[in-house]
Write a structure and sequence with these properties.
single chain, alpha/beta, 5-stranded mixed sheet, 7 helices, 32% helix, 22% strand, globular
């Protein structure tokens, strides 16, 4: 039986923690002056701004322990595991820690403090990303707007239209707006509108992805055998050694150049089944600006679908 190898497209850049433990200077008490009973603080005794503000807080929904890192209170989920070292993972929920059973809690906290710069930076990035996601949440109603191939697309409920939906253009020239006319009444439930739009996007995704796979496969001298659409929340695509490709239909929210990067990325795995320098050279051969497109995919999250 042919051994299948699956490789996932990374969502996040590899961590590059810095082992820097910065100590926060403490404010020194001034001496009370008898005449005015006021505290005199010398210029070099300035109180850090962070000390005057409420500390930041990051809390994992399954947190079992808290630690203070810099000026932030971090509640993390701790899991004991059969491993040799302490592992950190920062995701949408917060900080997760996996540690061997023999490592003390004090040692775990010390390891977190040692990597506090990296942890706080990743927690901040994850929070900002979640806020952008919430801002991009789609309200499913007549007039809803969502990104389609990198441009706004307005949903129009039109009972006279086909339920399958049709792409229309309203206006002319630079002011022209793209609209998706769905054959549903104005009183349609949000989930009906969502499901109709998703069905339309998935049909379009299969057609668009197939065209781009056929475009890049000859350039990379590979042969893809099957396309599967995915709705995964944490993976944009994957490839198997048998030539089957899986792509997330939500990629249709992004500009064509970003989609091309993901398509080329997965096809390149049919030549190089890892993320070695040779793999990235293979991607670069057909998508020279892949690094900028990869960052765009990370920095601009797709809208939330309820």
């Amino acid at each position: 039986m042919q051994r299948l190898v699956q490789l996932a497209l990374d969502f996040f850049d590899p961590p590059a923690p810095r082992d820097i433990d910065k100590k926060v200077p403490q404010a020194l008490d001034g001496k009370a002056q008898a005449a005015t009973e006021m505290v005199a603080i010398q210029p070099f005794d300035a109180v850090p701004l962070q000390a005057l503000l409420a500390p930041a807080s990051f809390r994992h929904p399954r947190a079992s322990r808290e630690v203070v890192l810099g000026h932030a209170v971090v509640a993390y989920a701790l899991q004991r595991a059969r491993r040799r070292s302490i592992g950190f993972t920062v995701g949408a929920d917060g900080l997760s820690v996996r540690a061997p059973a023999w490592v003390t809690l004090a040692a775990v906290d010390a390891a977190l403090r040692e990597k506090s710069d990296w942890i706080l930076r990743k927690l901040g990035e994850a929070r900002e990303r979640q806020q952008r996601l919430e801002h991009a949440r789609i309200v499913w109603q007549d007039g809803a707007v969502l990104p389609y191939l990198g441009m706004p697309l307005q949903v129009v409920l039109n009972p006279a239209e086909s339920v399958a939906g049709a792409l229309r253009t309203a206006g002319e020239g630079a002011d022209a707006a793209r609209q998706l006319h769905i054959g549903l009444p104005a009183v349609a439930r949000p989930e009906q509108i969502r499901d109709a739009v998703q069905a339309w996007l998935m049909r379009g995704a299969r057609q668009h992805f197939t065209g781009r796979l056929d475009h890049f496969a000859p350039q990379l001298d590979v042969r893809w055998t099957r396309l599967r659409l995915s709705s995964a929340q944490t993976r944009w695509g994957s490839a198997r050694a048998d030539g089957s490709i899986c792509l997330n239909w939500r990629l249709l929210h992004y500009p064509p150049s970003v989609i091309d990067y993901v398509v080329a990325h997965e096809l390149a795995h049919l030549r190089v089944m890892d993320h070695s320098p040779r793999f990235w050279d293979t991607v670069r051969s057909v998508v020279p600006d892949y690094a900028a497109l990869r960052r765009q995919l990370h920095d601009e999250p797709a809208p939330l679908w309820d």
